[in-house]
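Example 9 (inverse folding). The structure is encoded as follows.
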């Protein structure tokens, strides 16, 4: 039997400068959690939040780990493109 709530990876990074009154952050988590029926379930999620909202992307029970990684890759690709746009002379 697995132990309760085994954590493999867990980070929380504040996105604002230290002296900012805003509370933006990103959390990335991977671990095994104990369900209400005493079984263990793998849990993977990314949470991006700020003062006004929160986005939670999680691996669903029907996703494979590779499906979740593909979602992350698509997000990274779009963020890179958006950043390139912002730093270009067009923005």
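The amino acid assigned to each position is listed next.
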């Amino acid at each position: 039997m697995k132990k309760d709530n085994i954590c493999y990876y867990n980070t929380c990074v504040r996105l604002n400068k230290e002296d900012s009154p805003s509370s933006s952050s990103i959390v990335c988590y991977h671990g095994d959690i104990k369900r209400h029926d005493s079984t263990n379930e793998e849990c993977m999620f990314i949470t991006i939040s700020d003062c006004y909202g929160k986005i939670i992307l999680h691996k669903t029970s029907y996703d494979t780990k590779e499906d979740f990684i593909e979602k992350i890759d698509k997000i990274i690709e779009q963020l890179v493109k958006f950043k390139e746009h912002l730093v270009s002379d067009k923005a």
